[in-house]
Write a structure and sequence with these properties.
Strand content of chain B: 15-25%
Number of strands of chain A: 4
Distance between the termini of chain B: 56 Å
Number of helices of chain B: 13
CATH class of the largest domain in chain A: Mainly Alpha
Number of domains of chain B: 2
Strand order of the largest sheet of chain A: 1-4
Radius of gyration of chain B: 22 Å
Number of strands of chain B: 18
Number of domains of chain A: 2
Helix content of chain B: 25-40%
CATH architecture of the largest domain in chain A: Orthogonal Bundle
Oligomer: heterodimer
CATH architecture of the largest domain in chain B: 3-Layer(aba) Sandwich
Low-confidence stretches of chain A: none
Order of helices and strands of chain A: EHHHHHHEEHHHHHHHE
Structural class of chain B: alpha/beta
CATH topology of the largest domain in chain A: ABC transporter involved in vitamin B12 uptake, BtuC
Helix content of chain A: 55-70%
Low-confidence stretches of chain B: 1-7, 13-51
């Protein structure tokens, strides 16, 4: 008798969902045990987390607006990353592309805000961010296509290049540096929200739905259609499955890689434009780690655009809700959200194993000695 | 296929670690005890205790974790908790905190929304970069009090700022360092600084310390290394070593978060002055004394004012000023207990200087200098305050520079200080 791992032929969708549900539940359970160990009532904590503390909150509408503001960049970045990942191009450079997009957005907003009509500036901000981030991403794709360099390393390292450019801009108090507030003797980023920012759609008395939420979901829908029903989307899938096959089938693999990576980085730039264009200010913490978290979301979603919508909503909820819950429990700090996120990731990856394979008992000698 | 999956898993593992900077499970957090930080002498406070309504909530926004056990956030958290306990408040139910909030306006505003939603009546923000978010929120939530550490913005009603005369404490530490430099016969003193002239806070700290050193040892030279950031343990250590090895410094002071410069001093067999908390336990053979903050002094005052002022809009009037700027006199800043490493008569000299500062007859940045003899006796002499480029800041006998300069525009280093 022994244990043997056998590949599953096909796992029905409902079964997959069950596996994922169980793994998320198990992660929450482990989290609950840890909470109990430090003397926190897990039910009270999770209730606050999943309701984001909105029960009995006099400014609950703000909570929802803040939640959506977290959700939009994460969702768009995850969609963008999934495009590259589908092609097995490991774009770890979401952070860097987001930062470059943010700087481009701020540049246009500061220089053109108030000069040109607002709607035009907003469009230019988006375009600038997309092109800047797109170029920043496509450099790596070009190097890979031309010289076979490792894109994981290069995108990863370019994150730090971008980050230090941003830190330099945020901390260098000089006359030329228009990213900083000229009125203040210290290096403080200048706010350009009064010059130009994305409008909100008033719903109800106080709640405002930022137009970026609508646009982001719309873009998600377009990417879904693009991947499923267009020739280019098909090409991405083929290149991902086997570059050799794609080549044999007459596809121009290099061009597909360049195009898709550019698109991926463009979308991350757009996410940055949405964020910076709404808050109207830069900071060294502008990414809020979306470039990293986006990788996790894309992977948890199995690179499925529809699933990304739900997973990024869940991860944002987890992150945002956990911060709010931690505010009232002195033993828990905001790291708890990161830990839960890590737990969920590991357990979903474990579940993935059981979706792809199953463990069976085998009898010594096999079955052919009848 | 399997290989790729493995690769991805490895990748994600590395990334999720990198992304979260090492996720820490919040296990085994020691209940906050105020062991290593100085406390104000316990005053007979309980008289006002009935003024603590059970539904009054204190909110706080921290730059690092509220479960830290050392450093800047820890010092503030400790101050708030101590002050609330002294006021007879229940910390567990009356204190709400959003921690690990970076200096990003949107994230600070979201944190404020969270705290307001939790019913906070007064919100403390401890990091300078929260300034614009707090100003904006104070205008939006007029029924909540906002109080910002290290900032310079305020309004007439519900928004103030608070900071302390750390330069006075640093002057005292400088006296200890100066006496030590005389004892060991080495005029080179080092200073690992987070920033130098970019920030008035750091410039005034360096200058206060240097003037304290010079009051004892007029020949002393203070070498400053600029970290360019508020916390960087690796360079804090490396710069201290450079000051000791390349510039021959026999005493190393610091304006940075960790005790690394003190540890470096101990390893090299020289001495040092810490900052923020008593660093004698970190470097028992090297540490002399540290300039420290008693944040609970302010937090107690502010929370009490917030509870008694009725409407939030009366807060600034109740505090008497939109900018709280306490010093040695209020016991808001101080030096930690002198270690056995201090030179003889350090205690006498420091007490004498403290008395002069507390009495209000003299302050550090003026046209009068103190001369401190080796036996600790203090005499005053009129002498101009000159920067290290030779410009006269205050003429001999002139009055002290204004508080606004010390908190806002001081962008020079005094004579005898060299940035290296």
């Amino acid at each position: 008798m022994g244990l043997h791992i056998v590949k599953r032929d096909n796992c029905p969708l409902w079964k997959k969902c069950c596996f994922y549900f169980v793994s998320v539940f198990a992660a929450l359970l482990i989290g609950a045990i840890i909470l109990l160990a430090i003397g926190v009532d897990p039910i009270a904590y999770y209730t606050r987390m999943f309701t984001m503390g909105t029960i009995g909150n006099r400014i609950a509408y703000k909570t929802f607006m803040n939640y959506l503001a977290d959700f939009v960049p994460l969702f768009l970045t995850s969609v963008a990353l999934s495009l590259a990942f589908k092609m097995r191009f490991w774009n770890i450079g979401g952070e860097g592309q987001f930062i470059i997009g943010s700087i481009a957005t701020a540049l246009v907003a500061i220089k053109l805000g108030g000069v040109l009509p607002s709607w035009l500036v907003l469009i230019l901000m988006c375009l600038a961010a997309m092109i800047a981030a797109g170029v920043y991403g496509v450099i790596v794709a070009a190097l890979k296509v031309r010289f076979g360099t490792n894109e994981t390393l290069l995108t990863l390292m370019l994150n730090y290049v971008a980050l230090y450019i941003l830190i330099f801009l945020m901390e260098t108090k000089q006359d030329w540096n228009f990213f900083l507030d000229p009125e203040v003797p210290r290096p403080v980023p200048v706010s350009f929200r009064d010059l130009v920012s994305f409008p909100g759609i008033p719903l109800g008395e106080k709640f405002e739905l930022n137009i970026c939420v609508v646009l982001a979901v719309l873009i998600g829908l377009i990417i879904y259609v693009y991947l499923r029903y267009t020739k280019q989307g098909y090409e991405i899938n083929v290149v991902g499955d086997s570059a050799g096959t794609a080549h044999y089938a007459g596809m121009k693999v290099s061009r597909i890689v360049l195009r898709t990576v550019f698109l991926s980085a463009c979308l991350i730039g757009l996410a940055a434009a949405f964020k910076v264009g709404t808050t109207g200010i830069l900071s060294t913490a502008i990414t809020d780690d979306v470039g990293w978290t986006g990788i996790i979301v894309a992977w948890l979603s199995q690179l499925n655009t529809a699933a990304i919508l739900f997973v990024s909503a869940l991860i944002s909820l987890l992150h945002f809700g956990s911060t709010i819950a931690a505010a009232t429990f002195s033993q828990v700090d905001s790291s708890f959200a990161n830990m839960l996120q890590g737990l969920i990731l590991f357990l979903v990856l474990a579940a993935d194993f059981f979706i792809r394979f199953r463990v069976v008992r085998t009898r010594k000698g096999g079955s052919n000695n009848g | 296929m399997k290989k790729i999956l493995a690769l991805i898993m490895a990748m994600i593992m590395v990334l999720s670690l990198a992304a979260c900077g090492g996720e820490k499970a919040p296990v085994e957090e020691a209940p906050v005890e105020e062991a290593p930080v100085e406390e104000a002498p316990v005053e007979e406070a309980p008289a006002e205790e009935e003024a603590a309504p059970a539904d009054f909530k204190v909110g706080a926004i921290y730059i690092n974790s509220k479960n830290d056990t050392a450093g800047y956030t820890f010092a503030h958290h400790n101050g708030i908790v101590t002050a609330m306990e002294e006021l007879g408040m229940d910390v567990e139910s009356q204190l709400v905190i959003v921690d690990e909030v970076p200096e990003d306006k949107e994230q600070v505003l979201a944190a404020i929304d969270t705290l307001v939603g939790e019913g906070a009546n007064i919100i403390f923000g401890i990091s300078f970069g929260y300034i614009d978010a707090m100003e904006e929120a104070a205008a939006e939530y007029t029924d909540v009090i906002f109080s910002h550490a290290t900032g310079y913005k305020s309004n007439e009603t519900n928004f103030n700022n608070y900071f302390g005369r750390a330069y006075q404490a640093r002057y005292l530490a400088g006296v200890a360092a100066g006496l030590k430099s005389l004892e060991v016969g080495n005029n080179n003193v080092g200073y690992v600084a987070a920033h130098t002239t970019d920030y008035a806070e750091t410039a005034s700290g360096i200058n206060g310390f240097a003037l304290g050193v010079q009051a004892v040892n007029p020949d002393a030279k203070v070498y400053v290394k600029n970290l360019g950031t508020w916390a960087d343990e690796v360079n804090e250590k490396a710069y201290a070593e450079e000051l000791i090895n390349s510039f021959g410094c026999g005493v190393v002071s610091q304006h940075c978060d960790s005790a690394q410069p003190q540890i470096a001093a101990q390893n090299a067999g020289v001495f040092g002055c810490g900052y923020n908390s008593d660093m004698t336990p970190d470097a028992p053979q090297a540490h002399l004394t540290a300039a420290i903050w008693n944040w609970n002094v302010y937090y107690g005052t502010a929370i009490q004012a917030a509870m008694s002022c009725g409407e939030a809009s009366n807060f600034v009037a109740t505090m008497g000023s939109p900018a709280y700027y306490g010093g040695l006199a209020e016991n808001f800043v101080d030096v930690s207990p002198l270690s056995e490493n201090c030179a003889a008569n350090t205690d006498v000299a420091i007490e004498a200087v403290r008395e002069i500062i507390v009495s209000g007859e003299w302050d550090v940045f003026s046209g009068v200098k103190l001369q401190i003899a080796a036996d600790g006796t203090v005499t005053t002499v009129e002498a101009a305050l000159v920067d290290n480029a030779g410009n006269e800041i205050v003429a001999a006998g002139g009055a002290s520079v204004e508080d606004g300069v010390i908190t806002g525009t001081m962008n020079y280093l005094v004579a005898g200080v060299e940035e290296v």
